[in-house]
Amino acid sequence: MTGARTGGGSGARDGRPAPAAERPRALRRRAARRAATEPDGPGSGDTLAFVESPVQLLNVLEWLHAHLGRGAGGPAGVTVVVLSNNDPMTRGQLRRMAELAREEGVGVRWEDARGGASAPLRTVGSLSGALRRARRVVIGDPFSRYVQLLLTLTGAPEIVVVDDGTATMEFVAQLAGGERLVRWHRSGRGGLGGMRDAVYAPVSAAARRRLTPRAGRSVEVFSSMPVEVPDGITLGTNDFAWTRHRFGPPALTRGADLVGTNLAETGVVDTEHYIRAVTALAREHGATRYFAHRRESTEKLHRLADEAGLEIVRPELPLELIARRGPIGRSVVSFPSTVLHTLPLALAGTGVRVSACDIDPGWLTESASPRAEGFLAVVTGTARDVHRLRSAPSAGQ
How far is residue 97's CA from residue 92's CA, in Å, rounded to a whole number? Predict the structure, then answer.
């Protein structure tokens, strides 16, 4: 299993150096990690891809795999720009994904885009030339203010949006409805966040115009989500062919695995309800492992380990790759999330059953967005090839 477990370590054992036989491998891995954080240069290819999460980078690789036979320029023409944040788990997964991208022949440029007050200005300035030259720009998060700002600086005749999970569903709906681009879990109830949105509105509006096709500019959405794109936009189907080609098939364990979400961390679901729901699911399905979302809090994960008796696994790669590499449970249970749509594709033909557990409306917090309940229901209801479960039993007890 590729991943890190809470309380465990990697590398030296109990503070002792690794055995001599392991040192060359450890040195190679450290060198690869260093290389994954070093820029390849300003990006001389005709395609620039901007990613901020490991899943976005995975889907850039899927898009590249799908388009290799259709004149996309191949890896030699693509530079992936990693706009890294400061979250350790995200950075770790991004480093590993950058290694995989380089192994596929893709150029990777790492930007510490949030490394201090001057970092955004420095990053945007260093990318302006490459943006002007690019004929194709690929983005993973159209809601990102960083990406929206970069979009205003390019006149590329081709724009591609790859999946950033279920957020793609909301993006397409807002684009079709002529709405401003706002993440579904934002409450929209004013405050400092509302003030920032108002100040940033002109940039967001300009980015939205860049994401609207017109004469001389095409827009593609490359997605595994059940979306219907507006007229004029091309829809590419992401079936995770690269993932299946690159990894697996996995060995299967006899038990069930649970997939974590950050719904509590984003203020959508009450933490206490979530912990009771996970505990109930583990008991009912005989689950022993919990694959944590990269943004779940350490405190919550410790409670899940203690109260639900679960082994907490913090994967070092997106779950689609971890599951495909295996071992993985014969049954995988998840709350409404991206994996309900992506795991059945990544695990096609393996015999793994993916099950969806609905979020009970009573678990939502008072500060949750008014759109939260409906959006989560759509995420679960539109998932293909999954088994539907009722809300977790005894979650409210």
Answer: 9
Q: Are residues 83 and 161 in the same domain?
A: yes
- Could you tell me the residue range of the domain that residue 336 belongs to? 243-389
Of the residues 211, 238, 265, which one is the last residue of a structural domain?
238
Residue 50, exposed/middle/buried by CB under 10 A (0-12, 13-18, 19+)? buried
20-37 residue pLDDT tens: 333 344 434 444 444 444
Instruction: List the structure tokens of 380.
Output: 């679960």
- Answer whether 55's CB lies under 8 Å from 85's CB: no
Of the candidates 243, 255, 269, the one whose C-alpha atom is nearest the C-alpha of residue 100 is: 243
- Cα separation, 345 vs 357, in Å, equals 19
Residue corresponding to tokens 């950058």: 98
pTM summary value: 0.83
**Per-residue pLDDT tens over the stretch 81-107:** 999 988 899 999 999 999 999 999 899
> How far, in Å, CA of 391 to CA of 389, rounded?
7
**CA geometry: angle at 275 spanning 374 and 306, to 5°?**
160
d(CA 196, CA 213) in angstroms, rounded, equals 27
